[in-house]
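Input sequence (304 aa), recorded before submission:
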Amino acid sequence: MVAQKTQRSGEASSVSVALDVIIVTFASRDLIQVCLDSLFEHRPQVPMRVFVVDNASPDDTVEVVRSKYPLVELIARGSNDGFSVANNVALRLTSSPYVLVLNPDTRLESGTLDHLIGVMERDATIGVLGCRLLTRDGTLDHAAKRSFPSPTTALKYFALKAIGRTGSNYTRPDVGELDFADVDAVNGAFMLVRSAALLDVGLLDERYWMYGEDLDWCARFHREGWRVVYDGRVIAHHLKGGSTSGRRPLRQNYHFHRSMLVFYRDHASKRHFIEDALVSGGVWARFATTSAVASVQRVVRRAR
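Predicted structure, token format:
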């Protein structure tokens, strides 16, 4: 393991860091404690540095991290400018061979980071590596291994999801949960990135306020010749909690659908006016429908 030198504020001599971990928080007081406790309990054998970038949380997330986790390098932002912007703040500070972009609603298991770093060390062609992500009920998080969405696969995926089924090629059913395989994209909740590849590809695209930035990043890694790989032999837990659980609030629902169009226009559009208009109309029609359904559900819950 070749570790670069980095200087921490207040230290007289440099320390060797092989893994930088970046976690972006917003109103994540309880989740971030579970995440950080598991991260430090199951820390890798290589030296590790942890950044928490807080997006102006309205709760006491910042105070909890500052008081309970003195080893964490906390960056408290004064505004919430989105997931990509916040991650990029810390990505600009990284100096290690590997960077783990991690969500606060994750929980690590023993040996996972050592295994994945070992895979990266043995195969220099891998730019991004993800693992098997299990949701709160123990099932696979479908976004752990994905194909890039096209209008057809997206339509099939959302249609099946609406009736409680899966089967779209978007979720790579040809790749088993325990497999080790190249995929188009892994989940942004857990992405182990090679810093040498990051230098080629660049930071997260800040047009994505939330959602879609991981798909776009993976597409750009592919474009620069780096492999994106799913490793189902080790696990982490994606609890999918906090402010994005259940139905998305209106602002997040808007950005979810807007991100679909940004990705489509950058990576899937054939520049056919009619097709682009149909896709755009379909996306905004879905936004209107899901927003209306969410509003009705909120009214019903309050009436009860």
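Checked by second reader. The two ends are 58 Å apart (CA to CA).
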